[in-house]
């Protein structure tokens, strides 16, 4: 059975990797493929299509639909490969020395392939507790696609018992991750010839004041590190990530765009930190800009938001995850996942546990070890046995 399971995982992963599902493209061909695969096994899922009609999530229930079940959650989108130095076609699976190379192998089509490969075993087990597959889109650009699906889940009369989100953790059980809030600040200045610079309003220089304040507050967060924290970076982080401004050396810049983010340990800390910065800028920077010209100022726009995850170490879903993973340790990670949205939007207790290493995610020649996929298969096999009792 192990060899058959491994062969199914390889075949499914090769097929999934072949779909170019970078977030700016449709994932419908991949969803069509998954639906055909499930139909061949006698299963049908529920599509949750976005407003454009070009993206869809898929909710699949294996087992009784009138009982609360457990969820295996994964996303179908991948990050771009443009500008990366790949040694082979990133959308063709290559196996070498026990490693499977290709875009998304670790993040996170490997996990999705394992879940799909285990469906025949789910069907053969006569499940008493259902297993749900939650397959989403656009996780990489702000956990976008899972939200409409979770709104549907929240409306269901029966709430899932818990969720396992299969982001790469090397099959370690993750009980917490930081939240994230991203903001775009657009500074509106006044252009003038640089020879009469005092008559203009320099958007870049005012933006520099904001950047300096962000850096100052980031240092304060660093100094407030938690003692004995499970996080590798034991404090919230804050940084400026993108700056665009100016048109020519001899023109006072009339626009500058600054993007910044906070990754907060507390459930809502990331938004609280960025909201405080926005309030500071409106009070300390914008009045001076408007004093110089009434049309000048700052426009703020939210570009990304998800809460932190903080599941209690003794929660039932954590105990189950450790049982299925065959290990007793747990940790927290700095990267974000859809797990916190399962909690905040649908009140579904969640942990993160999946094959592969986050160090491989988003890199050229991304790979996942076959041994990790097999360990994940063993995890799902124990889940199946639990749900068949």
Q: What is this structure's SSE topology?
A:
Elements: H1 2-17, H2 28-40, E1 46-49, E2 56-62, E3 70-75, E4 94-96, E5 99-101, H3 105-117, H4 119-124, E6 131-136, H5 146-155, E7 162-165, E8 173-177, E9 179-188, H6 203-223, E10 237-245, E11 255-264, H7 269-284, H8 286-292, E12 297-306, E13 309-310, H9 316-325, E14 330-333, H10 339-346, E15 350-352, E16 367-369, H11 370-387
Parallel strand pairs: 3-6, 3-7, 7-15, 8-14
Antiparallel strand pairs: 1-2, 2-6, 4-5, 5-16, 8-13, 9-11, 9-12, 10-11
Helix pairs in contact: 1-3, 1-11, 3-11, 5-10, 9-11
Descriptive report:
This protein is an alpha/beta fold. It is built from eleven helices and 16 strands. The strands form four sheets. The protein has a six-stranded mixed beta sheet with strand order 1-2-6-3-7-15, with helices on both faces. A four-stranded antiparallel beta sheet has the order 10-11-9-12. The longest helix is centred in the middle third of the chain and has 21 residues, at 203-223. InterPro entries: AcOrn-deacetyl, ArgE/DapE_CS, Bact_exopeptidase_dim_dom, Peptidase_M20, Peptidase_M20_dimer, Peptidase_M20A. Belongs to the peptidase M20A family. ArgE subfamily. Its EC number is 3.5.1.16.
